[in-house]
Amino acid sequence: MTPSITPGASRGRRLLLTASAGALGVGLFLVGALGLTPRESPGGSDPNAAPVGAPAGLREAGSSADALATDIAGLQQHLREKPGDAPALGTLGLDYVQQAKATVDPTYYPKAEAVLTRSLQIEATENFTAMAGMAALEAARHNFAAALDWSQKAIAINPDNATLYGILADAYTQLGRYPESFDAVQHMVDLRPGTPSLTRASYAWELRGDTAAATEDMQRALNDAATPADRAFTRYHLAQLALDQGDAKSALTQSNAGLAAAPVSADLLEGRAKAEAALGHTDAAVVDFTSAVAKVPQPSYVLELGELLQSLGRTKDAEQQYRVFRGEEKLLTDNGVALDSDATLFEADHGNPDQAVTLAEQGLRTRPFLDMHDAYAWALHAAGRDAEALEQSRQATALGMRNALFHYHQGMIEKSLGHRDAARTELQQALSINEHFSPLAAPLMHAALTELGAP
Questions:
Q1: What are the ranges of the TPR repeats (predicted)?
Q2: Of 173, 191, 209, which one is at a domain's C-terminal end?
């Protein structure tokens, strides 16, 4: 029976989404699943088959940067011999986008745009591979309206390709068009139940606050995972689901299981570090965070390490990480990536509140997603504009997602407005979800609850 994401039907779950703080990201979809020709792959009628000549195992979203580099080198050599091969150019563009994400090197994005544009110049009508590549590129740069447009164009050519509906769902999600994103995920699951579709279905449930269904679908995605990369990916998100609900022990177990299969995974090291910090094993957490950042200087990882160090009184070390964070953000903007929630929250907590508001307003124009509304709310609060902040915060919690940070922010905003009962309710909700959601904010939450007379 085909898995469903419809509430009350199959409890299958987890979507695959973005980009900065805690979403799954455009990256998990299989590049090779797009095929290289419209509607049918060169070898037969399966629209989800890998392209002929694609090295086995190099098309998973979780593929290592080394494996992708090998694949890229092979495509570059092929294109030196056949420079007019539009499908190969499209595939190379997709690989460049994925390599940018795997290495956190946004200089691959201009390269991706150049080869994808060239591919579309050679074949503009039926070239859904390059169209999907443009959708992935625009999503990676947080230009989700353009990502939506490109994914719709690709689907118009190949409406039976499940992978394309994953890209479509990601764009709808980040644009805050949740019913349409859930429909796209359902269609992806119906077409091709498996790890990519089940991870997206999982996230769809998580957004609506059904963490049990989210975990079940992610477990099903793990059971279906055919490669070490996909198994590591699903283990990481199972750890995140557990940690986000206050179960640090399960998160640690999942992270360790993932690292057994993928010992060099920066994602899993970061996940284990958060679990260790929540359990009070701060020395081990610093070691794992430092290792993760050394492997992949993801801005969110750098910021997490900095805040952990600050919570431990290691102010100079924390400031060094914050300088690295600013450098990484500049590198992203220099290569066309629009900054949003991470940069906004950093400025609100550690920098200039007015700059945080400006960043949030820019971010909302391209990515009106839940965590962008939350970041905007916190920026407005930091700037002393609490009435406006409360409206934004309520938009962040409107779907029912169980997110301790969202409820903490809303509780502190209510407290600043003098709404003591509402503040207690929101802060106690944050406490019940995950009392270790932040090494810096959690102590402030406890202090606020004490001040409000909460037990």
A1: 162-195
A2: 191
Judge whether 89 and 118 are in contact, CB under 8 Å: yes
Among residues 156, 191, 226, the one where a domain terminates is 191
Domain residues for the domain of 39 are: 26-191
Tell me whether residue 202 is in a domain. Answer: no
- Is residue 351 one of the residues assigned to a domain? yes
The pLDDT averaged over each successive group of 10 residues in the chain (455 residues) is 36 30 37 36 30 28 69 95 96 95 92 98 96 96 96 97 95 97 97 95 97 97 92 96 97 97 93 98 98 94 98 98 96 92 97 97 95 98 98 97 98 98 98 97 97 90
Number of other residues whose CB lies within 10 A of the CB of residue 81: 7
Domains held by the chain: number: 2
This prediction has a pTM of: 0.86
Distance CA 305, CA 338 (A): 23
